[in-house]
Amino acid sequence: MLPQFSDPQLLNIALTHRSILNEKGLKAADSNERLEFLGDAVLELATTKFLYNKFPTENEGVLTAYRSALVKTTSLSKVATKLKLGEQIKMSRGEESSGGRQNIGLLADTMEALIGALYLDQGFEAVENFLKTHLYVHLDQILAEGTYKDAKSQLQESVQSQGLPTPTYQVVEEVGPDHDKLFTVSVSVGEQVVATGQGKSKQQAQQKAAEVALHQMTNK
Predict the structure, then answer these.
(1) Catalytic entry in 95, 109, 112, 121
(2) pTM score, whole prediction
(3) So what CATH class is 151-218?
(4) How far apart are CA 170 and CA 165, in angstroms?
(5) How many CA atoms lie within 13 A of 131 on its CB side?
(6) Which DSSP category does 85 fall into?
(7) Thinking of the domain 8-145, which architecture would CATH place it in?
């Protein structure tokens, strides 16, 4: 169940995907991208604080791996799915017909926008409580399964265990000015492109692509 908002308009914006802007004659600021930007930072800080307190003897490298596992696309999309967020996102007909409501990247982005909206509406403590209820409860499973390991490493181990070639990554698109680029990267196994991912660096986009590929392989 989604949190109750004092300002319902914040929730409305958090659930508005950019694809619907032209369809409804809305402005860029009416989409959830700015809230996603804010929510990404709030999520990282809240998760860092949670792990810092929970594991007082672990070093920075281990804590970073745990945090990455908690805030990665597949983890956030699982929470979004349980909250039935996909059913509530306002998106274009084209985005919906292409599977947008089940798209794990879109769901994860909307989760970040929701966190940003909740922070503005009720503050940092409300975000912490929300994450403790819906996200951090998955930590034990992440630790038990070892899914906190680097996504690219996991993907390489997975495909090699099946006798397949080592995954290769290729930048397929770069958009934006030099100080604020967005990279789209594809990952291929042999001749087949198996997934794509986006990020603010090539490395981040590669990790996203590997996450999506792992998700697809484990949900066949």
Answers:
(1) 112
(2) 0.72
(3) alpha beta
(4) 15
(5) 32
(6) -
(7) Orthogonal Bundle (1.10)
CA distance 35 to 29: 10
Q: What is residue 79's three-state secondary structure?
A: helix
Residue 208 β-bridge partners: none
**Do 166 and 160 contact (CB within 8 A), yes or no?**
yes
For residue range 2-56, what is the model confidence (pLDDT) as tens digits? 999 999 999 999 999 999 988 777 787 889 999 999 999 999 999 999 999 999 9
**Which helix or strand (DSSP H or E) is residue 217 part of?**
helix 202-218
Contact 30, 132 (CB under 8 A): no
Q: What is the mean pLDDT of residues 94-113?
A: 93
Mark whether 112 is an active-site residue.
Answer: yes
Question: In the numeric block, which tokens belong to residue 94?
Answer: 């084209």
Locate tokens 């794509």: which residue? 196
Instruction: DSSP letter for 89, please.
Output: -
Q: What percent of the chain has pLDDT over 90?
A: 70
Burial of 81 (0-12, 13-18, 19+ CB in 10 A): middle
* Residue boundaries of the structural domains of the chain: 8-145, 151-218
pLDDT at 108: 95
Mean pLDDT of 113-135: 98
Query: From the candidates 40, 95, 109, 121, which is the catalytic residue?
Result: 40
Q: Catalytic residue at 40?
A: yes
Please tell me the distance from the alpha carbon of residue 33 to that of residue 167, in angstroms, as a whole number: 31
